[in-house]
Known about the structure:
Layout: E1 4-10, E2 14-21, E3 28-31, H1 35-48, E4 51-58, H2 65-83, E5 92-99, E6 102-109, E7 115-119, E8 126-127, E9 130-131, H3 134-146, E10 149-156, H4 160-179
Amino acid sequence: MARTATVERTTSETDIALELSLDGSGTVSVATGVPFFDHMLDAFGRHGLFDLTVRAAGDLAVDAHHTVEDVGICLGRAVADALGDRAGIRRFGSVFVPMDEALVLAAVDISGRGQLHYDVEVPIQIIGTFDTTLAKEFMLAFAANAGITVHVMAFAGENAHHIIEAAFKALARALAEAVAIDPRVTGVPSTKGSL
């Protein structure tokens, strides 16, 4: 069964269409109007081996906040939809990603209880046109809407681009590990019997 999802979200602030395949090859096509964010979404898809298409039009004349947050909402919903009943998944995933001087850990639990624990210090606030505080807003929206517990911690880093990119890559790889099907798992990996 294909683990795919399509999510559309239209508000007075954004208009987003997103397609996701959890079992892809890392084929990505993204256009949000925020170049650095596009770069991060591309890294997320490629390093998680997710096929991802995102088309977003937002109120960028205000700033990128609504666009970034709403893409996080849509991606989280897509992951939740694509996972279906979650039978056979590994559930947990964690990975350290180094990127030059930066080192970031991401750990995820597909728990049904969406929450974010984010300990990432970034030395500057703007990369291109991207407000670096929006990386956390994206991950918060993603975790809440996916129903996934996400921990992201930076252990080292001086370059803001490297730190944030390592965070997106780490999240992607940890998620890929957690959503992977393990043939040894029967049903849902929970003592409760559901996630």
